[in-house]
Design brief:
By secondary structure, the protein is of the alpha+beta class. About 45% of the residues lie in helices and about 30% in strands. A hairpin with a 2-residue loop joins strand 3 and strand 4. The N and C termini lie far apart (about 95 Å).
């Protein structure tokens, strides 16, 4: 299969006029520098957000205890604000079993510690 001479001549002219290196293209150093700047800003913002989160309301939620029931099954006691939630977790699902105020939970915990 023969390639027409006009096609070869056209391709030679196009490749001579559109060289990427001679045009104002980006170099590898600019690309690496840009990536370093982006990742540096990302790390800076993550650190600032972490400090801000610790200062504002980090104590509003707490995992009190976990009772394992078997593979991928457990009951978690979560304190969210002024309530304690009993949550049954299994295979990626969550079911709220019961919710009670923190004061009732602490009374029940103190009574269980005194009895046992």
């Amino acid at each position: 299969m023969a390639v027409p001479a006009t096609f070869l001549a056209t391709m030679a002219v196009v490749t001579d006029q559109s060289t990427f290196a001679s045009g104002g293209g980006y170099s590898w150093w600019q690309t690496v520098g840009g990536l370093i700047v982006v990742f540096g800003l990302l790390l800076l913002f993550l650190k600032l957000l972490g400090k801000w989160n610790r200062r504002t309301g980090g104590s509003e939620a707490d995992l009190l205890t976990v009772w394992p029931l078997g593979p991928k099954r457990e009951i978690q006691l979560l304190r969210l604000g002024q309530e304690v939630h009993y949550i049954y977790r299994h295979d990626g699902s969550m079911v709220v079993l019961r919710t009670e105020p923190v004061s009732d939970f602490e009374k029940t915990k103190a009574a269980a510690a005194a009895a046992g």
